[in-house]
Amino acid sequence: MKRRTLDLTLATVGAVMAVILAIAGGLLLFAASFTNQTITDQLSAQKIQFPAAEALSPELQQYAGQAVTTGPLAKAYSDMIAEHLDAVADGKTYSEVSGAWIASAENPADRDPALGAQRQTLFMGETLRGLLLNVYAFGIFGTVAFIGGWVALAGAVAMVVLAAYGFTHAHKLHKQELLEAPAIESIPVS
Questions:
Q1: How far apart are CA 154 and CA 53, in angstroms?
Q2: What confidence score (pLDDT) does residue 186 get?
Q3: Residue by residue, what is the 3-state secondary structure of the chain?
Q4: End-to-end CA distance of the chain
Q5: How far lies 72's CA from each of 39, 123, 128, 147, in Å?
Q6: Which one of 9, 48, 140, 185 is most buried, counting C-beta atoms within 10 A?
Q7: What is the pLDDT, as a whole number, of residue 71?
Q8: pLDDT value of position 3
Q9: Which phi and psi angles does 49 have, rounded to 5°?
């Protein structure tokens, strides 16, 4: 295979890769923007806010009074809920308390009301905590998509530069081949 043919082939592949990377980068940046905007919109609508600093553990006091509008803030708020849930039933989970409540009497009307209240509080708290942790997870996906989008766009730029270099080099080789080609002698016509 001639060097010029190889240059043209690789440059064409590079140009196609540049287009693919540019499209992928754009889609990833769109996904990141959509994810982060949806998280902010949904959390803002719920008006979740951290309490005052004195009501928070030392690790969470930096968030005092802030509205929960991002994935990392949702994670921090879920950590606060976890601290509160630990105090509800001496660290027992909803599943453990619910099992004890069900076992407390065969007749539902005779079951321990204190366990029932703990069960309901743990259910609501663990559910809210799980929802907030899902928001945090989607926030991480948005961050990864944002980084991936910029990496793909940088790759697209690099491929454009390399493809341009390949096409330029192939053109120079073509000019050189023309200059080095033996002259064609004219054949007399009789």
A1: 43
A2: 64
A3: CCHHHHHHHHHHHHHHHHHHHHHHHHHHHHHHHHHHHHHHHHHHHHCCECCCHHHCCCCCHHHCCCECCCHHHHHHHHHHHHHHHHHHCCCCCHHHHHHHHHHCCCCHHHCCHHHHHHHHHHHHHHHHHHHHHHHHHHHHHHHHHHHHHHHHHHHHHHHHHHHHHHHHHHHHHHHHHHHHCCCCCCCCCC
A4: 40
A5: 11, 23, 15, 17
A6: 48
A7: 96
A8: 79
A9: -140, 140
The C-alpha atoms of residue 181 and residue 190 are separated, in whole angstroms, by 27
Number of Cβ within a 10 Å radius of residue 119: 24
Measured at the CA of 145, the angle between CA 142 and CA 149, to 5 degrees, comes to: 140
Contact of 165 with 6, CB cutoff 8 Å: no
Residue-wise pLDDT tens digits, 48-90: 999 999 999 999 999 999 999 999 999 999 999 999 999 999 9
| Segments of the chain with pLDDT less than 50 | none
How many C-beta atoms surround the C-beta of residue 152 within 10 A?
Answer: 19
Round to whole Å and give the CA distance between 150 and 73: 24
Which CA distances in Å does 38 have to 71, 112, 138, 139, 142?
Answer: 11, 42, 10, 10, 10
Q: Rounded CA gap, 81 and 75, in Å?
A: 10
Q: How far apart are CA 38 and CA 75, in angstroms?
A: 16
pLDDT of residue 105: 84
